[in-house]
Amino acid sequence: MKRAEVYLVNFGKKYNSEFGKIRPALIIQNDVANRNIDRVDFKGVTVIPMSTNLFGGDLRVRVQKRDKLEQASELCVNELCTLDMSRIYLDNLLTVLSDEELEELALKLKTHLSL
Fold it and tell me: Among 114, 113, 112, 106, which Cα is nearest to 26's?
């Protein structure tokens, strides 16, 4: 598992406005933490869920259909969250973000987090 990779993630049962169900999500956590996750007790992975409801805007990044990602989707930057790694289906890499997509994401994360 590496930063910029997209996997299917089980977000569980939808609760109020939170994302639910199994859906693609981006691994946004840094690769040092990703490489060492088997050595620590807390196995949380920071991800950004994706949606096929395409709205655009200041907190969305479009990812076109490609590789095993079956539909054009958007990263929902404002839904950044940390989940236990057992929720990530690591046997099914869907795609990897391009450098351009990562640059756009970095700008939108900075906006969302007021950095």
Answer: 106
Q: Are 28 and 2 in contact (CB under 8 A)?
A: no
Q: Pick the closest to residue 75 from 44, 40, 33, 112 (CA basis).
A: 112
Cα 24 off chain centre by = 7
pLDDT, tens digit only, all 115 positions of the chain:
999 999 999 998 877 777 889 999 999 999 999 999 989 999 999 999 999 999 999 999 999 999 999 999 999 999 999 999 999 999 999 999 999 999 999 999 999 999 9
Taking the C-alpha atoms of 26, 65, 74 and 12 in order, what is their torsion angle to the nearest 10 degrees? -60
Amino acid at 115: L
pTM of this prediction exceeds 0.85? yes
Task: Give the count of domains, the chain.
Answer: 1
Structural domain boundaries, residue 15: 5-113
